[in-house]
Amino acid sequence: MSEANIDANAGSVAPTPPPPPTPAATPASREPDHFRRVLTIWVVLSVIGMVACIFLLPYILPPTASNLGSVDNFTIVLLTVLAIPVALFVFVFLAYSMFAFRVRERPREDALPLKPRPMLQVGFLGITSVLCLFLIIYGLVAYYQEASAAPANPLVVQVTGQQWTWTFYYPQYGVSSQGQVLELPVNRAVQFVVTSKDVLHGFAVRTLGVRVDANPGQVTTTPYTTPTAIGQYPVVCVELCGLYHSYMWSSLKVVDQSTFNSWITSQGGHP
Amino acid sequence: MSETTTTNEAAVIVPRHYTLRQLLFPSVVSGVVLGVVGAVVVYFIVRALQPDNYDAQVVFAYTGWTLFFFAGIGAFNGIWRWGFARHDDTLEEALDLAGKDQGLWRYFRYTTDHKVVGMQYLATVLVLFFVGSMGAFSIRLEQSVPGAIFFTPSTYNTIVGMHGILMIVASIVMVSGPFGNFVLPIMIGARDMAFPRLNALSYWLLFAAIPVFLSTLFLGGFPTGWTGYAPLAVQGLTPGMDAYCFTIILFAISTTVAALNIITTVLVLRTKGMTLARLPIFVWGVMLSVFLGLTAFPSFLISQVMVLTDRVFHTSFFIAANGGSNWLYEHLFWFMGHPEVYVIALPAMAVAAELSAVFSRKTVFGRRMLLGSLITICILSVLVWGHHLYTSGSNTALDAPYMLDTELISIPTGFFFLALVGTLWRGRIWITVPLLFVAGMLVNFVVGGITGIYLADLPTDEILHGGMFVTAHFHFTLVGSMVFGAFAGFYYWFPKMLGRRLNPRLGALHFWLFEIGFLGTFLSLFYAGLQGEPRWSANVSPLYATANLIASLFAILIAVSVFVAVYNVIISLARGEVATADEWGARTLEWTVPTPVPLENFATLPEVKGTAYEYGLSEPVDKGFGLHEPATPDTMDAPSPQAQS
């Protein structure tokens, strides 16, 4: 969009070319160099925004309690940092135009026509394509790393949704959780095997980075995730499943291995 | 200004005088009366035959309503005349059908004039927006505090679903309906649409769907939200779900009919010199949008027919126990559901492009680049629906291609922004209410577009899917971007359509309240979504209470803005300044015809000699801008071919 990138069509006032303008030569040079100005504002705000993002976002994002959750949070920070200059590009140019080029009343003359040079279009295409490709490749790599991990001695939990509760069954111990609690040992990989008895449900544990639909008649397995922090977290349903959808809450308790073993025993299993 | 000749029409045709019977039949009054009678009769017949199948009773009653409503409003009269080969329409009958000399009553009849249909769409869209926004405020009320306080979960789910589908339907037609029908034919230099009767049919199908939809309130509501996911939709114990399905069927037929009509009109009825390359961007946007709708809506229609057969005839398309699959529904639904977003987006984006050129008095920055980006978006958008199924557990092998397609859309969208920002750059920016809405749209669309990346990217989607983040994202794109774009068009074309100016101060107040309230509400919901709040929560968890309360408080500003807009419309209709023919100094053809626009739009059809955006290139702004001159003689004394359909 710089003057350098624009063919000024034969018109009244030719804009000054961007190489050092001879002072006070043409009428246009009395005007401030809008393009340089707006570019400076954009760069400064982008840098501030990106730095602020890196430092502030971790306070906004919820704490994670698993390796998957950490990857997910990192991805959010990365995407936001990349998004800042893109968004500011539009915001800054738009706001600058609205303020700097506004006229008080209905304009009586037309503005100078500008059209993009091919190099601007190709350059824009190149930059957006590179950004886009990066996002795709990054996303796929991150996702397949998650999906293909094969840790040793994983815990398997069968999750069954029904209107409007979750049931958690631990096949390795032959025991179901009594009550609405999903209890997991810390630092041991876990895989969920999810299904539904009636309609579609969505099994979601934000802090574990796990979210998958519970389909009637189908069994879906999630990627392995390893809880890393002891604590209590919500388990929710994220597919509208009827009347009490928003009451379909359970809680996840991440505990140490010995507490987990005694809990299994207390539920009637044998660790 | 070209001379405003409507006089020679009156010279040829003597105005008719109507008896009360002629006024009432056919009209919407006779349509509704006959429709209700038909529905009741059919209901009792089916109840006698199938006393236990409530769904069958309800669905057949809706069918009876629809058929008898159209008989009552006179939709079959023309078919009747031709089918029994009595005679073709005389000119008088054609003009009568087009609403000549019927005053306001023409808006309540099966009128074929495209301007009447456009106004009917406009009024309907505004009413739907109003009712839908009341649903939105009810939702914000319920979510302002933890726990289900104000509504029962059942009522809440129905409100969410009704808000969703009302707004989706309204925003699908919000640009193509009012402006696509009223403005588009004038923009291309036509006297009417290609198929005026189909045009009336498309509107009245939408109208017929509204009572069907509202009847869900008396039938127990529906639990599925606007997506109507099966098997929950099949399980639904109340017949309220049938209302949803039947509404979608009627609406899908309506949009299909409208789409065929608009495409044919643009391809066939362009005036001399209006080549496809010279078509205004708005016309391109609407045409791409309805073309996309024509591709997408049949699968929505089919999905609802299948849900209805599951409910009424107990088939099992979606019941896993009998071999059906919920993934089938999800694919059918989202094959419509994602292109549908662009059905809404493309015309609103085109409005924004059109207006930014007008209000910066500057040619569009890269018009072909912009058109290319709109066409690319249109094509890519039919290939991305699978990203709604990332977490469904069904299609891991296709995740990567869907992700690729989805993120590729950001490239043409980037060019759209480049074109608009470039158009405003160094323009003579005349800040009017329409331009404010365009600016607001650009700001919100950036946020909506960028947050879309989070949902397109697999690692982040797996924590955000089905959550409040999604809700906030699509409200930023659909409301913040597309509804803002539609309001830009509303403030821009209102003086042409209704002949009155809207108060610009109230318009600006509407904009600022809406924009600030909107940003506050949905940025808070982004925050709630990042924390992991699920969607569709009657019972908000205390974990997310603060963000939801802030969102609800900001929603009050949006509510005020709605009433400011309503007030503005009412006072401007009552005692607004009379608008001139050329309100803004734009160069598209609709501003060259008088306001109010005469029945056949042009006294003489114009000849076009360039695009409408040659600001600073051709002569200074001039009403005729030298682009048209008498090309065809006035055809009023022969029946115009369009008036016959």
Q: How would you portray this structure in words?
A:
The complex is a heterodimer of chains A (271) and B (645). Chain A has 271 residues and is of the alpha+beta class. Chain A has two domains: 3-102 and 114-148, no CATH class; 155-266, Cupredoxins -  blue copper proteins (Immunoglobulin-like, Sandwich). Chain A contains four helices and 13 strands. Chain A has helices spanning 34-60, 67-100, 118-148, 257-266; strands at residues 6-8, 102-103, 114-116, 155-162, 165-170, 175-176, 181-185, 190-196, 201-205, 210-214, 220-221, 231-237, 250-255. Chain A has a five-stranded mixed sheet, with no helix packed on it. Chain A has a five-stranded mixed sheet with strand order 7-13-12-9-10. In chain A, a hairpin with a 4-residue loop joins strand 5 (165-170) and strand 6. In chain A, helix 1 (34-60) runs antiparallel to helix 2. The longest helix of chain A is centred in the N-terminal third of the chain and has 34 residues, at 67-100. The radius of gyration of chain A is 29 Å and the shape is elongated. Chain B is mostly helical. Chain B folds into two domains: 23-110, no CATH class; 111-592, Up-down Bundle (Cytochrome C Oxidase, Chain A). Chain B contains 22 helices and one strand. The longest helix of chain B has 35 residues, at 326-360. Chain B starts with 6 loop residues before the first helix and ends in a 70-residue tail after the last helix. At the A-B interface, helix 2, strand 2, strand 3, helix 3 and strand 10 of A face helix 8, helix 14, helix 16, helix 17 and strand 1 of B. Strand 2 of chain A pairs parallel with strand 1 (429-430) of chain B, so a sheet runs across the interface.
